[in-house]
Amino acid sequence: MAKTYRKPEALADQPTHYCPGCTHGVIHRLLAEVIDELGIRGRTVGIAPVGCAVLAYNYFTFDFQEAAHGRAPAMATGIKRVRPDLMVFTYQGDGDLASIGMAEIIHAANRGEKFTTIFVNNTVYGMTGGQMAPTTLPGQRTTTSPGGRNVQDVGMPVKIAELLSALQTPAYITRQTVLKPKYIVRAKKAIKKAFQYQMDGRCFSLVEFVSTCPTNWGKTPVEAIQWAEENMLPYYPLGEFKLPD
Amino acid sequence: MGKILMKGNEAIGEAAIRAGCLNYFAYPITPQSEVAEYLSRRMPEVGGVFLQGESEVAVGYMLFGAAGCGERVFTTSSSPGISLMSEAISYISAAELPVVFVNIVRGGPGLGGILPSQADYFQATKGGGHGDYHLLVMAPASVQEAVEMVMAAFPLAEKYRNPVMILGDGLIGQMMEPVEFSDRLISKPTNKDDWATNGMDTRKRNARNLVKSLFLDAVQLEEHNLALKAKYDRMKQEEVRYETYNIDSDFQALIVSYGTMSRVCKTAIDNMKAEGFETAMIRPQTLFPFPVQPIRQAASKDGCEAVISFELSMGQMVEDVERSVQGKRPVYWHGKAGGEIPTPEEVVDAVKSFVKTK
Amino acid sequence: MQREVMFAGFGGQGILLIGNILAHTAMEEGSEVAWVPSYGPEMRGGTAYCLVVISDKPIGSPIIKNPMHLVAMNRPSLEKFAPVIKPQGVVVINSSLIPVTSGRSDIHELLVPANDIAMDLGSTKVANIVALGAFVARSKIVDFECMRQCVKEQFASREKLIPINMAALDAGQKAAQSK
Asked: What ipTM was assigned to the predicted interfaces of this complex?
């Protein structure tokens, strides 16, 4: 009988610690598929963040470094500068990248460091228990914004893809999602494009993912997907924001 | 090759290249910016990597990333910059990566000043960042010694898979002295295939490598800390380096001093000797591991009435001197911390004030 | 035997350079040397000074309270350092810019109109070299010919500057001998 589902070689054969309905698993799989398809597993180094994906290194079968909060882009810079032949990606959440690691991501992007960032935006600090992030939507309740995000007090959520697109250094910046199968095909193409640009030594690339956190949002997986589509997509529109020259 | 006259900061940059380290990440800060200026010219000449990071915080992790994939890498900074790097230094120590740091110390705390200081002794030798860890710390007293220590630092960092810090001071960085780059100190990077994330294709063994500092399991974290401790204990056995001065005399006082301060003490010891007053010195060349036994032994010698730690700080190394002497002799501290360096005359006066029999 | 020379003046007068040349010359002669600069905010237009220590044995403290000699290129430098120079030291005073003397009778004072001499040679930029020539001619702290070689090496990458700097050295030597 023909196998219709096969685990990518780049993906480790073990269950993840992610909550039911979390999008990390799907994004991991897309990444692994792309790495397999490009045949680069033997020269890829991933960098895991601080956050829910801190243990991401357990779910892949290639070299990995594990970063301090927000510093993954600096580590990727270090690797890529001394070993330009390696394929390097950072995998970061919104607390990690958009808050504590804002300086590192902006400067790495602006220097045009030739690595790829997978940015998973689910509007909260997941691992530490659902605190407010720079990406939390206006009025959204979190454990540190119990009355809902007050934009008078803490400003509007940061749109990372748009922010980085304002930089002039050539780059590939896109926002995708894996909320529904129809989005997943496009998302995988975006990841592949980003890695292809890196392979060609062309530019820094970032793929942002509009993602869910059913656990910290207090929703079922299905409700979470619906909430993200209705609330996040209008504020965080999908699309390609920047292409290399 | 013959001697050339070089500024400490430039000599340090050149020494790293001679040692085979072709990767440098840094952020400018007085009084060591000449290293970055020098290497921004030199690294492209030798096909190396020079990158000025956006902050010392980022630079710390650029070092992590580069060392993590098995390449020789180093940085230079000065006190406030080292504070910013201390987060990364903790992670680098935890992940057991060989990185060489040079701290051209300036006065603190806070912004402090830009003149020579030894006020980062605690930070360098006791950890500096969070968690149980130590750097192997070497303290040069001349430009030539700074060169030798930088060149020796890379194989040492690789031997222990541990960061090494060269603790200089503003004077060592800014002063020009004749230097010679010894061929004997040129070393080959060790093979890092067992642990570095240098890409599976480059290794014989078909298993992936992981460079990390996270150990969520209590037993595993304990094991990790015990392994680190064993490493530091081994350094204490194998890497203690020090120099003695006038130690065979019938000295009445023992001076412990390192770096620039030790040079002033040498002149003071010569001046006192000329007057017929004998003092000796132990100059730690490694601050971690500290020459505990040699100091204890010298302090115990008959006729030695006092042990004095001379420092460009408000009394930091003196705690290690006390720990070494273990109450066998009175231990004193004398120092300055504003950036001025005590004169030999001041050292002589201080020594005499601590010694009862004249 | 250890000798120390303080070079002092305005930032931009080439103070650190002439200290460097002297240290280099002494090193070529086989001496131990240390060149210690002032550094920091002062280097941007304020006073600049450097101390050169030359010795026949390894140099202990490179921080010297009472240097043996002084080359003062501006008035604040003379006023700051002349009082601490050791008796019998040589004090070169750039009399083009310094209208006073050291007021000491226990030192060898040498007035050299370094800027005027340099201007006659075509550029006030070599006033520092004039002063260096005068100082070395008087103090004989290093061999003059050896120093000429070191100045040539110093300007090896800018060869067209060598003749004027050679002329400046000679003019300084002449100024020292005529006094």
From this structure: 0.96
